[in-house]
Amino acid sequence: MKIRHLLLAISITALWGLNFSVIKLGLATVDPFILAGIRFTLCALPAILFIPKPDVQWRYIVGYGLVFGIGLWGVVNLGIASGLSPGIASLVLQFSAFFTILLGSWIFKEALSRYQIAGMGIALCGLFSIISIVDGTVTTIGLMLVLLGALAWSAANVINKKARTTQVFAFLVWSSAFSPIPLFTLDFALNGSTGYHALWNQLDYRAVLSILFQVYPNTLFGYWVWNSLMKRYPVSTVAPLSLLVPVFGLLGSALIFNEDVSLNKIVAVALIVSGLGVGLYGQRILNAIFPRAVQP
After folding, report:
1. How many domains does the chain contain in total?
2. Does a structural domain hold residue 296?
3. Does residue 277 lie in a domain region?
4. Which of 11, 12, 79, 205 could pair with 145 in a Cys bridge, judged by C-beta atoms 3.0 to 4.6 Å apart?
5. How far, in Å, are 80, 119, 265 from residue 111 at the CA level?
């Protein structure tokens, strides 16, 4: 990979990691579902007026929009608002990789490898390390909600795989159009008009910057660049860099909110990232360390 592309990919993982802290800044004055609803409204508009519908069945576009918008980011916002720190949220969300593997084995009949099973075991040890954290940055409800968001992300990955679209940006824009109304409706059902009154009276520059960051650099630009790199280089070259997301997530939370980076958190990061590495790339790592003898 060219140096400029490598630096660009690392920059995207930094944006994605920092995004969790940016979400928390927005949640200071905006309800979780409303914040997600505004985010996906701006992801869809006005771009949808200029970008043709992707050549994908409507059920995939609608399904992806609902699962990605509500099940993933609506629920993750709720988890952070429930007390889970942005750094821990960015780490726990990486369990989506294992949920995707498990869903793939069920839906697509893909066999689980010994490396995937070992990786899940290592990552679960990291999750137990998170549960033992007692510094106020971990709440049970927040942890469960982000794990639910990770499951939703894996479901969105399955929908994306079944859709088989090559028009990634158009698919993201059009699917985003189906997230806002359910998100706004959910907030009204749970909180009545309170969240909307607060939005009108308490919206500040931090919330505005949070929304703009989530929409443009993080979602539209980030996913466009990442998928462009995935097309240019082998998946095995680009995908491992996503393991940096929770590292930047924890660093961002430490810098912005002075989150204490305790030994338990360092151990959790090491175990979960290692588990992801073993589960997703174990065979490649083994082959690199112990290359097979070349047959004459």
Report:
1. 1
2. no
3. yes
4. 79
5. 34, 15, 32
Q: Token pair for residue 164? A: 């088989």
Q: CB of 222 within 8 A of CB of 15?
A: yes
Q: CB within 8 A of 6, min separation 6: which ones?
A: none
Sorted by sequence, the CB contacts under 8 Å of residue 286 that are 6+ apart come out as none
Find the DSSP H helices in the chain: 3-27, 32-44, 58-66, 75-81, 86-92, 96-107, 114-131, 140-163, 168-176, 180-191, 194-202, 205-213, 222-232, 235-238, 245-257, 263-289
Instruction: State how far the Cα of 207 lies from the Cα of 260, in Å rounded to an integer.
Output: 24
Q: How far is CA 154 from the centre of its chain?
A: 10
Domain, as residue range, for 167: 3-289
pTM metric for this prediction: 0.88
pLDDT in tens, 241-254: 888 898 999 999 99
295 domain residue, yes or no: no
Using an 8 Å Cβ cutoff, are 68 and 156 in contact? yes
Say if 98 falls within a structural domain: yes
Half-sphere CA count of 79, side-chain side, radius 13 A: 30
**pLDDT tens-digit profile of 122-175?**
988 988 889 888 788 899 999 999 999 999 988 988 888 888 888 889 999 999
Cα 165 to Cα 245: distance, rounded to the nearest angstrom: 25
121 contacts: CB under 8 Å, gap ≥ 6: 275
Residue 167: burial class (beta carbons within 10 Å; 0-12, 13-18, 19+) = middle
